[in-house]
Write a structure and sequence with these properties.
Elements lengths: L1 H6 L3 E3 L1 H9 L3 E6 L5 H4 L11 E3 L3 H8 L6 E5 L2 H16 L10 E2 L1
Parallel strand pairs: 2-3
Antiparallel strand pairs: 1-4, 2-4, 3-5
Length: 108
C-alpha cells in the first residue's frame, strides 16, 4: 500500500519532506513510527480530520515501504490509494498493542 503510493508520488518520508507537505496542505495522512522519539514526533501536526494520524508501525516497518532501514515520519497525499491505506491502518490499529498504557494503534 504505502510503497505503491510512494512509487506513484503520493507518499514522502523524512522530517523535512513531511513538514513541507503538511505546510502546503498536500498531506492527507501523517504516519509516525511507534519507536520514534516523542520530541521529534511532537514537532509535526496531523493534517486534521478523523483518521489523519497513525502511529501503528515501527520505524523498520515504515522503512520497508520507502526502501530505507528506518523511517520515523511519512505522509500520504490525496487519492483513492490513500483512503485504502487509511482503512488498513485503522484495522491494524485495532489489533496491535504494545502493552501497558501505550497502545501502538494510535489513531487521530
Amino acid at each position: 500500500g504505502i510503497s505503491m503510493a510512494r512509487k506513484a508520488g503520493r507518499a514522502v518520508a523524512g522530517f523535512e519532506k513531511v513538514k513541507d507537505w503538511l505546510g502546503r496542505e498536500e498531506a492527507r495522512i501523517l504516519f509516525q513510527a511507534t519507536d520514534g522519539s516523542e520530541r521529534g514526533k511532537s514537532k509535526l501536526y496531523p493534517p486534521g480530520g478523523k483518521g489523519s494520524f497513525f502511529e501503528v508501525l515501527t520505524a523498520s516497518e515504515l522503512g520497508l515501504s520507502f526502501g530505507r532501514e528506518r523511517v520515523i515520519h511519512a505522509a500520504l497525499g490525496f487519492g483513492g490509494l490513500t483512503e485504502r491505506i487509511r482503512e488498513d491502518a485503522i484495522r491494524l490499529s485495532g489489533v496491535r498493542d504494545l502493552g501497558g498504557d501505550k497502545v501502538t494503534g494510535k489513531v487521530k
